[in-house]
Amino acid sequence: MAIVELEFSALPVHVRTARLIVTAVARRGGVDETLLDEVRLAVGEACSRAVEAHRTTCPDEPVRLELKAADGRFEVTVHDAVPGDDAAVTGPGTAADLAVANTPDELNTPEDLDFALADGTVDLGLAVIAGLADDVDVSATPKGVQIRMSWPADTVAAS
Hints:
Distance between the termini: 7 Å
Shape: globular
Mean pLDDT: 80
Number of strands: 5
CATH superfamily: Histidine kinase-like ATPase, C-terminal domain
Strand content: 15-25%
Oligomer: single chain
Order of helices and strands: EHHEEHHHEEH
CATH architecture: 2-Layer Sandwich
Radius of gyration: 16 Å
Number of domains: 1
Structural class: alpha+beta
Number of helices: 6
């Protein structure tokens, strides 16, 4: 399947449209019907994060999505144009690892994580995405933040 690219204005109303498009492309790309709700919710969360960041920083810049199904995977990448730090933030896809990616090193126990969630130093949205997607990678660069999510797909059956 070729790459499908989508750009939309940083308005909350467009997140629903992005979720609908991603779900249709995922279905066509061979994602099992039982995973489509997870795809829709994870992409909705990533797009909502991007819209909120754009609305406060660069409201005229569009949010970009790339969708592709290849090699037994369906992959969605959400790009925002809000500059991050120079170091890439990556995680192996577990909720705990992604949730504490930008938090102090002192978060070693579940109680520490609960405290960080309570005081807002942990990004709960990333934890939600990590819990829904099969694989997640988050990169923050001076050009923006990129959230890549993927799920298993039967790309042979989808052809």
